[in-house]
Design goal:
134 residues, mainly beta, five-stranded antiparallel beta sheet, two-stranded antiparallel sheet, 11 strands, YmaF-like protein, YmaF
C-alpha cells in the first residue's frame, strides 16, 4: 500500500507530490515537479494547498510559478488529490547569455519580447501522513 492510510476524519497535516507539463510556446515546453505546502485537511473538506517553484531549464531559460491547488477530490481508496492550473511568470524569448548562469528578467525592458506558459496537472501521492493511532 505504500504510505500509511491516515484517519482523514482528523484532518491530518499532509503535503502532496506533483508533476505537470506546460503547454508548448516558442517551440518548447517545461516540466514542473515538487511538493505542495503542508495543510491540515481531509479528503472531503475541500482544503487547498499552496505550491511554487521553477520550471525545468529549457531553451536557455526557466520560469517561476506559484498557485493554489483546487479543492480536495476524493479517491475510491479513501485518499484524495488536487488539480493544478496556473500560468508561469514571463521569461525572454531570446535568453540573455550570462557568464556564470542564471536568468535575468527585467519587466521594465519593454522592447524585449517575452512569453509565458500555462501548466495543468494534478497532485500525486500524499506525503508526510502518519500511521493510524500514532
Amino acid at each position: 500500500m505504500g504510505l500509511y492510510q491516515s484517519d482523514w476524519s482528523k484532518k491530518p497535516p499532509h503535503t502532496h507530490a506533483y508533476r505537470a507539463v506546460t503547454d508548448v510556446v516558442q517551440g518548447h515546453y517545461h516540466l514542473i515537479e515538487g511538493f505542495s505546502q503542508p495543510e491540515n485537511g481531509s479528503n472531503t473538506d475541500e482544503h487547498t494547498h499552496f505550491y511554487s517553484g521553477i520550471t525545468s531549464f529549457e531553451n536557455g531559460h526557466f520560469h517561476r510559478y506559484y498557485g493554489i491547488s483546487g479543492p480536495a477530490i476524493p479517491r475510491v481508496d479513501g485518499t484524495h488529490y488536487h488539480e493544478l492550473a496556473e500560468t508561469t511568470f514571463a521569461a525572454y524569448n531570446e535568453p540573455i547569455q550570462i557568464r556564470y548562469g542564471g536568468v535575468v528578467y527585467d519587466p521594465r525592458e519593454q522592447d524585449r519580447k517575452t512569453h509565458h506558459h500555462k501548466l495543468k496537472g494534478k497532485t500525486r501521492e500524499v506525503v508526510g501522513n502518519e500511521p493510524l493511532g500514532w
